[in-house]
Write a structure and sequence with these properties.
alpha/beta; 4-stranded mixed sheet
Length: 174
């Protein structure tokens, strides 16, 4: 969507599919140790993890307090009427935590737990395609805003219930 939109983003946008999140964020931890692009030039990490089951228009967004600009960015991007549950914490059991542990702003979008969460029964036919499109459109607006800003986001340490070590080890617990 970003590549075909006509206007190229001001900053590079990198798409990465990590592996072994469930085993302790192994893929994302490896990346932040040996990044393809220097972390000093990385402005933010936006993580879409389990976003295919939008229910009652509710989208959980973790990491909102990891940069002072993020609440405004989310509010502006939410033109589709999603009911955002904004959580400040930048740690948590998904790949964004590896980046937050390196003092980078993060967002983790998640449509919440469901009966098939991390089970073999979570198959393509259970995805809410229309809801997922809404989440992707929202994420695209957020990413474009971050990528087109003339300055970097202002990183902040958010109040947290996890420790960096715990966030690196946990993953989903599977």
């Amino acid at each position: 969507r970003l590549a075909t939109a006509g206007k190229k983003p001001r900053r590079r946008v990198v798409f990465i599919a990590f592996t072994a999140e469930e085993r302790g964020l192994l893929g994302s931890r490896h990346y932040v140790r040996e990044p393809l692009f220097p972390l000093e030039k990385t402005v933010a990490m936006v993580n879409l993890d389990m976003v295919g089951r939008l229910k009652d228009d509710k989208l959980i967004v973790y990491g909102v307090a990891t940069a002072t600009e993020l609440p405004g960015i989310l509010a502006t991007a939410n033109t589709g009427g999603l009911k955002l549950n904004a959580v400040g914490d930048g740690f948590g059991p998904s790949d964004h935590a590896s980046f937050y542990a390196k003092d980078l702003p993060v967002l983790h979008m998640f449509t919440d737990l469901h009966e098939q969460y991390h089970r073999a029964s979570d198959v393509a036919s259970t995805i809410d395609a229309a809801g997922e499109v809404r989440v992707v459109e929202f994420a695209e607006r957020v990413v474009r805003d971050v990528a087109d800003r003339p300055t970097r986001l202002t990183f902040t340490k958010a109040p947290t219930t996890a420790t960096p070590r715990a966030a690196e080890r946990t993953g989903s617990g599977v």
